[in-house]
Automatic annotation (TrEMBL):
The gene is murD. It is found in: Cytoplasm. GO terms for cellular component: cytoplasm. This is UDP-N-acetylmuramoylalanine--D-glutamate ligase. Cell wall formation. Catalyzes the addition of glutamate to the nucleotide precursor UDP-N-acetylmuramoyl-L-alanine (UMA). GO terms for molecular function: ATP binding; UDP-N-acetylmuramoylalanine-D-glutamate ligase activity. It comes from the Bacteria. The lineage of its organism: Bacteria, Pseudomonadati, Bacteroidota, Flavobacteriia, Flavobacteriales.
Length: 443
């Protein structure tokens, strides 16, 4: 069996190692450059590879192709493979049959990283032998090749779910859905929504789907679609006999006739959106029979995720917060919503078709100044130019942070929550967040 892997990044290398171990004839092809450490691993494992090109003769003879999530379906080589009827799948689809571990799959436009990390933290703290992978950390395929975990918590992007055929998580979570990556879905929101719901398409009556019952897009999908999985909703406003909700500042969860309650003030994560992430993760913990005391302790000591509403420093009584992971409007909505002080907001980058009007009421209420950090800030200026007292454009992080310090006074918050991708001025959102943290430390 010939396995061709398009893309020599983390998921590609992991798939190559697992494929080789399972007796496939493996070939890795990357249209860009492969990192040196990954090349060494390929050489050590005797895996043939190429970079900066796709040699068609070596690719179009594949029995199966694993495509890295970053490569769009529209790319010429992928179109040729599909035309030849060669299956093009994601790493998750390739790897899953080689493990009998319990799989918890988590998707959504926002909150999926926090929910994934928190779920993993809950299970690991309870002593379970659990792996963490998918869109974060070490490749799922690589872990299956090297380790023997009893369960996996996987963060799954819509691109990874686009490449599944039989993949079936025992427990699936959809944290929420808001317009994102529409450039990859022919600018049709319904295509993107369908893509997220692929997480439940192979689930049976023995499986579970945990979802946000307050989410409009999810509610719309359920009007015309069904899943066989048992449904476990969570909500900030509704109550359920089976599901999770917040009532009188208590998180209440009822699953399989088992009750769990906890005061929200004891949960380490702050903000309404994080209450949802906590309800989703705790629902998993309940399904996995984790003891109540362990769940309470884990929820109260969880540290959160880097670049997601991360408190950096307080300088002259001004709190600096790094929310660089907010790459769309919905994520920034949550960030602004959780601000309790006058806010200097650093925003901008590569816009994925954003509608900033959704933020208007929050900006009027909370934001005293806006610092635009992007190559093209026209849209942001057009929307908010008349709403805030102060609007400034900068083209690097040091200037953004220095300007923010000038515009802020005691008791204010400086919030980096860009609502955009980072590729105009930074390598990725991590680079953007790290530059912010460094600039704050240099003040």
């Amino acid at each position: 069996m010939r396995l061709v892997i398009l893309g020599g990044g983390e998921s590609g290398i992991g798939t190559a190692i697992l494929g080789k171990k399972k007796g496939y004839d493996v070939f890795v092809s990357d249209f860009g450059k492969i990192k040196e450490n990954y090349k060494e691993i390929l050489v050590i494992n005797g895996i043939v590879w190429e970079e900066e090109k796709h040699t068609e003769d070596l690719i179009l003879n594949a029995d199966v192709v694993m495509k890295s999530p970053g490569i769009p379906d529209k790319s010429p080589i992928v179109k040729k493979l599909i035309a030849k009827g060669i299956p093009v799948i994601s790493e998750i689809e390739f790897a899953a049959p080689f493990t009998d571990a319990t799989i918890i799959g988590i998707t959504g436009s926002n909150g999926k990283t926090t929910t994934t990390m928190l779920t993993h933290h809950l299970l690991k703290s309870a002593g379970l032998n659990v792996g963490l992978g998918g869109n974060i950390g070490k490749s799922f395929a690589w872990q299956i090749a090297d380790n023997k975990y009893d369960s996996y918590v996987l963060e799954l992007s819509s691109f990874q779910l686009d490449g599944i055929i039989n993949f079936r998580p025992h427990i699936a979570i959809i944290t929420n859905i808001s317009p994102d990556h529409l450039d990859r879905y022919d600018y049709k929101y319904e295509n993107y929504i369908d893509s997220k719901f692929r997480i439940t398409m192979n689930q049976t009556e023995e499986d579970y789907l945990i979802y946000d019952a307050d989410d409009e897009a999810i509610a719309e999908w359920f009007k015309t679609h069904t899943t066989k999985a048992k449904l476990i909703p969570f909500s900030l406003t509704k109550t359920f006999s089976e599901g999770a909700y917040i009532k009188n500042n208590k998180m209440e969860i009822s699953i399989n006739q088992e009750e769990f309650t906890m005061d929200t003030e004891h949960i380490a994560l702050e903000g309404k959106h994080n209450m949802k992430n906590a309800m989703a993760a705790t629902s998993v913990a309940k399904l996995m029979q984790i003891r109540k005391a362990t769940i309470r302790e884990s929820l109260s000591n969880f540290q959160g995720v880097e670049h997601r509403l991360e408190k950096v420093l307080k300088i002259q009584n001004v709190q600096y917060i790094n929310d660089s992971k907010a790459t769309n409007v919905n994520a920034t909505f949550f960030a602004l919503d959780s601000m309790n002080t006058p806010t200097v907001w650093i925003v901008g980058g590569v816009d994925k078709g954003n509608d900033y009007n959704e933020l208007m009421s929050l900006v009027r209420e909370k934001v005293k100044a806006i610092i635009c950090l992007g190559v093209d800030n026209k849209k942001i200026i057009d929307v908010f130019g008349n709403v805030v007292d102060m609007m400034i454009e900068v083209d690097n992080m040091n200037d953004a942070v220095r300007m923010a310090q000038r515009l802020s006074e005691k008791g204010d918050t400086v919030l980096l929550s860009p609502a955009c991708a980072s590729f105009d001025l930074f390598e990725n959102y991590e680079d953007r967040g790290n530059q912010f943290k460094q600039a704050v430390k240099n003040l």
